[in-house]
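ok trying again, last paste got cut off:
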Amino acid sequence: MKAMTFWVKPKSSIEALPEAQALVRDLLELFYEYFPEYEGCLGFSQSPRRPRYLFLYMEGPCGGLLPAATRFLRELLEAAFPQAEVRVYGKPWP
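nice, full thing came through this time. structure:
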């Protein structure tokens, strides 16, 4: 599967994710060091209201992250948001 979207949501419906813009920018900078071929392919947004879901998504002409890059980015997100669940959505890889 090629990853197209990463959804980060709190494990508890009571908690909310913190403001994540600076953290995600740092995280993506690290990701691009290891996978420079994806530079500029990922965008992100965070919902303004509780529980402040976070979405990282493919943008532009990029066709999705291959498995090694998907695993690495998922691990980065899980380490950055230990109080959250990270879900990955994608499309079949031929």
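cool. The CA atoms of residues 52 and 71 lie 23 Å apart. The mean pLDDT is 93.
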